[in-house]
Amino acid sequence: MYTKDHLGYKRRLKKKSKRPVSITVICMLLVLWGLYNLVSMYINVYQGIFTIYPAINALMIVFLFVSVSGVWSMERWGPVTFPIVVLLKIVVDLIFGFYTNWYLLGFVLSVYFLRFYGKMRHTE
After folding, report:
1. Which has the closest alpha carbon to 54: 41, 37, 43?
2. Distance of CA 71 to the CA centre of its chain
3. Distances in Å between the alpha carbon of 2 and those of 10, 11, 59, 120?
4. Cβ–Cβ under 8 Å, residues 95 and 87
5. Under 8 Å CB-to-CB from 87, ≥6 apart: which residues?
6. DSSP per-residue string spanning 55-123
7. pLDDT category, 18, cuts 50, 70, 90?
8. Nearest alpha carbon to residue 40 among 88, 106, 98, 110
9. What does the DSSP assignment read for 12-71?
10. Which listed residue, 4, 5, 48, 76, has the most CB atoms within 10 A of its CB?
11. Distance between CA 103 and CA 61 in Å, rounded?
12. Whether the predicted pLDDT of 86 surpasses 90
């Protein structure tokens, strides 16, 4: 859909997708979990090869924040990048021995986010 601006040029209207409340709540919980994980990670003291773990884990959490922001803003790249970030987080935690089965919940959330893929907008 197009509209004309004050100079008479055609401008394309951006279509805003309605965001379900459940996606808002889940994204807020994921951001809070990421912040808690960042804080608790730097409280613990790591020695040896595990000294690099906080930096890599922080990078994974930043990637998680980016993918969650894509889901929250209803962009199509958000639900596509979210399972990739979850998989990378699982691999990093398996390498360093910090894996828990709770990370598999990320794949359940990925399937839930992908249900709304058709309602999300494609960014240029």
Report:
1. 41
2. 7
3. 6, 5, 40, 19
4. no
5. none
6. HHHHHHHHHHHHHHHHHHTTBTHHHHHHHHHHHHHHHHHHHHT---GGGGHHHHHHHHHHTTGGGSBPP
7. confident
8. 98
9. EPPPPPPPPHHHHHHHHHHHHHHHHHHHHHHHS---GGGGGHHHHHHHHHHHHHHHHHHH
10. 76
11. 13
12. yes
25-65 pLDDT, tens per residue?
999 999 998 888 888 777 766 666 667 888 888 899 999 99
Q: Which class for 38: exposed (0-12), middle (13-18), buried (19 or more C-beta within 10 A)?
A: middle
**113: buried, middle or exposed (CB in 10 Å: 19+, 13-18, 0-12)?**
buried
CA gyration radius, the chain: 18
Q: How close are the terminal C-alpha atoms of the chain, in Å?
A: 15
H-helix or E-strand spanning residue 9: none
The CA-atom distances, in angstroms, between 73 and each of 16, 22, 26, 68 are 9, 13, 13, 9
Q: pLDDT digit string (tens) for 64-85? A: 999 999 999 989 999 999 999 9
**Per-residue pLDDT at 109 exceeds 90:** yes
